[in-house]
Every structure is written in C-alpha cells, then in structure tokens.
C-alpha cells in the first residue's frame, strides 16, 4: 500500500467491490467500500486502480439512469445490482456521427470545440479538447461514424503527439476549470409562479428547499377497499399493517393485500404494498347521478372521461356534469362505465386520511353502496420537469425508492415546454436511494455536479437537483464515525460546513475555457428531522445559498401547492433579475410584484386581528386587502401539477395574472371611496373570472378581454 494515494479507487476482494482510500497511515490504508461488505475475510486481494473516483464524460449520457458511482442501471439483468458489478458508463460499442469543426494546422486550446455529435434532438454534444491540453492540430478525422473511444484528433504539444477521443474522464471531487466567473442577469424559469415571480433564481444560482413532504393522502378511515378477502375499511388495513415508519410526511405501514387496479382502461388484479396515514384540513364530497358518494382530499385525482380520452383530474377541479370513469356492476370481469357528477361540495375541518400504495396500477377499487375507482399518491418533480435549463441532472440521494421509481415513470411521458420534445432527451438520472449502501450517497452528489459542469463547459445551462443533501450529510457522518474522528454538533464531522460550501460553490455562471457562456444551477432539497431548521445541515446550507424556498407543512396539509411559504421564503436574486423582467416581459413588472408582496404581508398582519375579533371589525379598505391577498393565494400562488394549462405558467402569463389581481385591488379602492363594499366587489363577474383565469388565460386577447371587465367594475 506504500504506492497508494488518498482518494484512489480500489477493488476489494474476489468480487471486486468498489472502494476508495480515505486515510493512509504508513503501510496501512483505510478504504471506504461503496457496496455491502458482507462475507469479506482477511487475505482477499485489494487492487489499486491508479486514479481517484472519476466519471466518464461523452456522448451517450443523456437519457441514462446511473447509480451513485455512474454505473449504468439499464445494462443490469434482473432486478438488483450484484456486488462488484461494473460497466462503462457510456456504450463504447455504439457509433456516433462525428462532424469536425477544425482543420489540420489550426491551433486549439484546452476547452476548444473540435466537432460535435447530435446526441438527441434537443442536445448537440460538442467534443472538446480536455483541460490541460493545447497545441496544433496534426490530424482530424473526417465526418463519419465513430465510437467514443476512437481517436478523432491528434495534436502536437511540447514536441509530443496526443490523441483525443470523444470521451473524457474527470475526478468528481475536483471542480472542472473555467476562464472566469460572471454575474448572471437571466432567470431560471421554472413555470411555477410563486418561484419565478416572488422568489426567483438566476441561471447559475443556488437555492435550498427545506421542509417535509406534502404527500396528499386521500381517503377517510371508514372508506372500504375491495380486497381479495372482501371489503375492508382503510383503518382496519392500517391495523393489520406492520413496520410503521413515521416522518414529517405522515406514517407508513407495510402491507400485502390483493386489490383491483385500472390498467390501460381495464380493471385488473394488482397488489397493495403499504398504507399511509396523514391529516387534511378539508375534504371534497362528490355525489353522482348513479348514487355514488366520494369523499376525498382536494388534490386526490379521479378519472374524467372526455372526448379525447381519460384525464386524471384533482377532485377540487371537478364540477357538476363531468363524466367519471367508474366500475360497472360486473367490475370483477374488468368492466367500467361512466357516471355523471351531480354535486361537488367542500367541507373544512381536521380529518384523518389514508391512502394505499399500489406500485403498478396506481389505483384501487373501493366504496360503499356503489364501487368507486380511487387513485393512490404520486409525487411529481415540477422544477425538474419544466425549468428552462438545457440539461437536467437529477440526483436521488438517499430518498425513498418509490419516489425515484415514480420520477422514472413520469419523465418519459413529459415533453420539454420549449421544444415539445421528450424531456428525457435532456435529462440524466442518478438513483442512489435509501436501500442502497450509505457510503455511495456521499459520492453521488459529486458525480452529479461533475456531469453538470461538463455540459456547462459546452456552453449550456445545466440544472442539478439534489434530493436530499440531508441524506448526503448523513453519509458523511457515518464515514466520519467509522474513521473515529472527533464529532461536532449532532455527530456530524467538524468539516461539514466546508464540504457543504465546496458543493454549492460549484454553482455559477461562467465563461468557459473555450470562450462560451455556461452555467450550473443547484437546487438542493434539505430534509431537517422534525422540521427543525436549526439543525447543522440546514444552518450551514443557508450560509452558502442565495435563495430559500420554505416548504410549509401547514400549506401542504391544506392542499396549497406548491407549498412555498411566501412570508418566510426569500431570494437575493430578485433585484438583479428585475432588469430582465422589465426588458423582456413588462416595464411595470417590478412594481406589480412589490405591490403583491406588500398586500400579502399586510394581510398576514391583519390575520391576527381577524382571528381574535372577526373580519367584521375591519374597515372596508382592510377587508379589501384580505380579499386581494386571498385572490393572490388562490388565483396565483396555488398551482396544479395535473392541469394541462396550470401546470406550467410562462413568464408573460404570470405577469398578466398578477396584473389582473392588482388592477382589481386598485379599482376596488376607487369604488370603496364612492360608497361600494367589498361584498359588492366580490359579486362582480370579473372577480370570479380572475380566480379561474389561471386555467384558461393562454392568449393576449383573453387577457385584454378580462382586463376590460376589471376596469369596468
């Protein structure tokens, strides 16, 4: 081991388990193995690989799914990763059409683009001279098909010839070099109104997203589920569940019970693997002409039959006359029918609610007098889906496996909002979930950021989503504990702050070595235990990020999505991005935004008086403030991930929606001065149309027509 060096990769034992040297003491080395070490015994060989943990960078990464060490999961046979599994991160046998952009005799520098490969319809993958190498081109391959390992360029540097292929290798713990860091004045548009308008992030920015999960559980405890053993109440299924797991997102018990699920429009046999329990502040009660009564949470989705097919629609958006897909009288044979909604009511209170986990069909049949098809919980990743970055790298670091599965099932169905092409053509997934070895979590974050930097060097805007950095920090704590290092607060290593800083410092907008402008934006989810934002990971993270999107459990429980708290969140990028909004969207956008925030803060102050004395004691002007704040919350801040129009809101539409509300407020003040009341303003046609505009406002003509109605109040 005398020839070994720190952070060198090694293969341990007969199985060749992957590890990394984390400490050297004389002839002894401490190795952190990234796989389960069960069965290792003294005397087995350890082989040094001669390089630190590195990633393979080149054409073929996009659309791929890797584990935390960049091992491709698509090549695995069966359902599990065997210990010692290794494979090239990129298919080295596939041939790509290479188009050169330099000629013999030209001088090239590190980072210079020498040609390109059209990897997908969305991404032109540029081949670059590796960092640290420059010289004169001696030979360049003609346009044609080559593998990533074929030499496509030869340069002469310092009297030596160097061959360059389409692939680079780079150590993940070393940031890739750049020419200079620059200030970004362009926002990362996510399509989420509360973020883009109130708490924006610049391209190349960093943001922390702390908070528990708002899982959207759906049914009351008395609801029956049709199982292989007959009708069983949800609360009774909860009682027979085992291995309860509790967290800020609710509680889960394992379960194995046969149910009926809808697959491709037909009812088929399936199996539930668990039951959730949570709380909700409201329930939507739906009654149908066929005699069905359905009690679900507002965000719970049901199947609505339309002319174009079946649409999964949250209960809060259903209305009388909609056609629900439900089981037929002989549903055991797979049949379905359509039932017409007669009434939709909302009941407020404090409800205990439940949900089943059905991995494949995502639904189950239940109900009392007449059977009903219920959907089970699904988590969508809106920012990864809709952000206007050119490349998305998603790192599932230590989170639950079902979330990653849902992401991998959802992404292939989505299209990029700008080009309309499949979103997987610009995405790379790194799956290192909670049931994988803890140590590999620590490496997965660095693998993700290095891949993002590689696309930055090509002149692209890359987005890295890390879910969650808390689990990454837990891996640091475990490794530190096994090395018997002196612990700091809550057992974390003393260098926790510097590690978090070094990670977020890799975000930014840069002038690359090749002279292009590229960026890496980092969105890091933080999962503080019990929502305690004073714990070390959250505290240190907030020191190094410039935006903070607080996910409020109270908003989530009341089914307000996205559950970003507008009084506790902040963004230091808002001022530097005002010029972009003024130049590209509307000159008065900054003023409209500030007025909306002022109204929200004033309403928050007035809410204490209302809770004590009631709204009747307020003067009409303050009642208008409260009503306008409610319009901002319901008509602007709330956003449905399932509605075809509302799920993605372009910047211009965001401005138009907010201007309608602020104009209503200003016109309301004028009407109040002439003797009108807030109740009279609420009864106008424009008031209701403003609240519904987010579902229908998709043209300048529609906005102008509604604005005329507001001005005519």
Number of distinct helices: 16
Largest sheet: 10 strands, mixed
Percent range of helical residues: 25-40%
Distance between the termini: 82 Å
Shape field: globular
The whole-angstrom Rg is 28 Å
Strand content: 25-35%
User: Which structural class do the helices and strands define?
Assistant: alpha+beta
* Strand segment count: 36
Q: Uncertain segments of ≥5 residues (pLDDT<50)?
A: 213-217, 376-381
Average residue pLDDT: 86
Which key phrases capture this entry?
713 residues; alpha+beta; 10-stranded mixed β-sheet; 6-stranded antiparallel β-sheet; 16 helices; 36 strands; globular
Task: Please provide a written account of the structure.
By secondary structure, the chain is of the alpha+beta class. Helix content is 26%, strand content 31%. It contains 16 helices and 36 strands. The strands form nine sheets. Strands 6, 16, 17, 30, 31, 32, 33, 34, 35 and 36 form a ten-stranded mixed beta sheet that branches. Strands 20, 21, 22, 23, 26 and 27 form a six-stranded antiparallel beta sheet that branches. A four-stranded antiparallel beta sheet has the order 3-2-1-4, with no helix packed on it. A hairpin with a 4-residue loop joins strand 1 and strand 2. The N and C termini lie far apart (82 Å). Residues 213-217 and 376-381 have low confidence and may be disordered.
């Amino acid at each position: 081991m005398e020839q070994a060096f720190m952070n060198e990769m090694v293969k341990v034992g007969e199985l060749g388990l992957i590890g990394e040297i984390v400490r050297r003491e004389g002839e002894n080395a401490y190795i952190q193995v990234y796989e389960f070490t069960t069965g290792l015994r003294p005397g087995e060989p350890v082989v040094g690989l001669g390089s630190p943990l590195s990633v393979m960078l080149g054409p073929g990464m996009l659309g791929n799914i890797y584990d935390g060490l960049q091992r491709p999961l698509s090549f695995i046979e069966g359902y599990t990763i065997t210990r010692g599994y290794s494979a090239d991160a990129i298919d080295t046998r596939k041939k790509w059409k290479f188009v050169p952009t330099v000629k013999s005799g030209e001088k090239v520098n590190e980072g210079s683009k020498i040609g390109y490969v059209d990897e997908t319809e969305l991404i032109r993958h540029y081949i670059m001279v590796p960092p640290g190498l420059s010289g004169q081109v001696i030979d360049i391959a003609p346009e044609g098909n080559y593998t990533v390992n074929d030499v496509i360029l030869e340069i002469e540097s310092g009297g030596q010839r160097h061959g360059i292929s389409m692939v680079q290798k780079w150590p993940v713990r070393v940031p890739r070099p750049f020419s200079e860091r620059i200030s970004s004045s362009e926002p990362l548009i996510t399509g989420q109104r509360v973020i883009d308008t109130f708490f924006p992030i610049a391209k190349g920015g960093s943001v922390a997203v702390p908070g528990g999960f708002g899982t959207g559980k759906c049914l009351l405890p008395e609801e029956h589920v049709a199982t292989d053993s007959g009708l069983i109440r949800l609360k009774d299924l909860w009682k027979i569940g085992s291995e309860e797991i509790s967290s800020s997102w609710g509680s889960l018990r394992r379960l194995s019970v046969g149910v009926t699920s809808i697959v491709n429009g037909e009812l088929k046999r399936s199996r539930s693997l668990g039951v959730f329990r949570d709380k909700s502040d409201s329930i939507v009660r739906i009654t149908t002409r066929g005699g069905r009564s359905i009690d679900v949470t507002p965000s719970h989705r049901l199947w609505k039959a339309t002319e174009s097919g079946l649409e999964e629609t949250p209960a809060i958006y259903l209305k009388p006359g909609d056609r629900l897909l439900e089981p037929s009288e002989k549903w055991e044979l797979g049949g379905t029918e359509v039932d017409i909604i007669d009434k939709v009511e909302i009941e407020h209170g404090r409800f205990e609610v439940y949900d089943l986990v059905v991995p494949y069909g995502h639904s189950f049949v239940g109900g009392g007098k007449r059977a009903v098809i219920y959907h089970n919980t699904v988590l969508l990743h809106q920012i990864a889906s809709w952000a206007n970055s050119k490349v998305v790298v998603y790192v599932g670091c230590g989170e639950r496996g079902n979330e990653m599965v849902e992401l991998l099932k959802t992404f292939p169905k989505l299209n990029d909002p700008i080009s309309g092409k499949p979103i997987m053509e610009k995405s790379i997934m790194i799956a290192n979930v909670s049931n994988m070895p803890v140590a590999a979590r620590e490496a997965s974050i660095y693998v993700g950021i290095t891949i993002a930097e590689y696309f930055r060097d090509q002149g692209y805007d890359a987005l890295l989503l890390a879910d969650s950095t808390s689990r990454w920090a837990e891996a640091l704590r475990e490794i530190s504990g096994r090395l018997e290092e002196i612990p700091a607060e809550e057992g974390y290593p003393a260098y926790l702050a510097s590690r978090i800083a070094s990670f977020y410092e890799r975000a930014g907008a840069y002038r690359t070595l090749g002279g292009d402008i590229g960026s890496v934006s980092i969105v890091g989810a933080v999962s503080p235990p019990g929502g305690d934002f004073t714990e070390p990971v959250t505290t240190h993270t907030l020191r190094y990020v410039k935006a903070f999107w607080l996910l409020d459990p109270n908003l989530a429980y009341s089914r307000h999505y996205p559950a970003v708290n507008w009084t506790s969140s902040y963004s230091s990028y808002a001022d530097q991005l005002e010029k972009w909004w003024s130049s590209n969207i509307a000159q008065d956008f900054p003023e409209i935004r500030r007025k909306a925030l002022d109204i929200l803060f004033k309403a928050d102050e007035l809410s204490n008086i209302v809770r004590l004395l009631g709204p009747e004691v307020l003067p009409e002007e303050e009642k208008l403030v409260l009503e306008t704040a409610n319009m901002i919350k319901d008509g602007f801040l709330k956003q449905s991930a399932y509605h075809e129009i509302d799920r993605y809101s372009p910047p211009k539409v965001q401005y138009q929606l907010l201007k309608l509300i602020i104009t209503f407020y200003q016109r309301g003040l004028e009407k109040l001065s002439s003797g009108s009341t807030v109740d009279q303003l609420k009864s106008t046609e424009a008031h209701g149309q403003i609240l519904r505009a987010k579902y229908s406002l998709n043209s300048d003509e529609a906005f102008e027509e509604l604005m005329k109605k507001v001005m005519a109040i």
